[in-house]
Amino acid sequence: MTKEEIAGMIDHTILAPNIKKHQVEKLCREADQNHFASVCVNPIFVSFAADLLQNSSVKVCTVIGFPLGAVPTENKAAETKTAIKNGAHEVDMVIDLNAALEGDFEKVQSDISGVVEAARSCDLERKSKTTVKVILETCYLDDDTIRNCCIAAKNAGADFVKTSTGFGTPKDKDGKSLPNGASAHHVKLMRETVGPNMGVKASGGIRTAESAREMVEAGASRIGTSSGIAILESW
């Protein structure tokens, strides 16, 4: 895989809570110069990023129900419509994690459907398709639950499944922190479940060219990272 090809798979990301506009401006400039797939920013920066990238091929991505997913579906739908109105081309939504952990995959699918339907209603108005990615937060889920959430996302009409927010805080029984980002095992499992025609985004803790390559080899078609420049420099 060439440097240009991996660049075209990167969502150049800045989602920390203490971000200033000049950092978003730098992110957009880097994404444009390196031909990344998108910039992924918090909802308050969507309009700003869209203005900066209006003459670029780089898409504007934002997050919905982030980072917990613990808001009603109608709130997520409203966030989605506002984000698209403000210029977002892609939305990464967090699932109803509680429903997933309870094994209520009908509710998981219904929640995803609410966001997909909100996006599609906006698509009719602006005559272009919004990419909907579904964040599973795999660090909290066993393999069977990941499979079922992938099926729910596929049945709901989403475009991608995504591993992680990067903000999860899983711990073992002794209170020791566990990994909270993407793993090749989970990416492979997700790809096997959704098949070849749906996107799989690996996100969380991908900071090196080696880890990015591992995720692509496992089946990822998009990489979410705040280390896009470092990955390219060592590719």
Write structural notes for this entry.
This protein has 235 residues and is α/β, with parallel strands linked by helices. It has 10 helices and 8 strands. The protein has helices at residues 3-7, 21-34, 46-52, 73-85, 97-102, 105-126, 143-155, 184-194, 209-218, 228-233, and strands at 10-14, 38-41, 59-64, 90-94, 131-135, 160-162, 199-203, 222-225. Strands 1-2-3-4-5-6-7-8 form an 8-stranded parallel beta barrel, surrounded by 7 helices. Helix 6 (105-126) packs parallel to helix 7.
Give the mean pLDDT. 97
Principal-axis shape equals: globular
Strand content: 15-25%
Distance between the termini: 9 Å
The strand line-up of the biggest sheet is 1-2-3-4-5-6-7-8
Can you tell me the residue ranges where pLDDT is under 50 for at least 5 consecutive residues?
Answer: none
**Which bin fits the share of residues in helices?**
40-55%
Query: What is the H-and-E element order?
Result: HEHEHEHEHHEHEHEHEH
State the helix count.
10
What is the makeup of the main sheet?
8 strands, parallel, barrel
Can I get a quick summary?
With 235 residues, the protein is an alpha/beta fold. It has helices at 3-7, 21-34, 46-52, 73-85, 97-102, 105-126, 143-155, 184-194, 209-218, 228-233; strands at 10-14, 38-41, 59-64, 90-94, 131-135, 160-162, 199-203, 222-225.
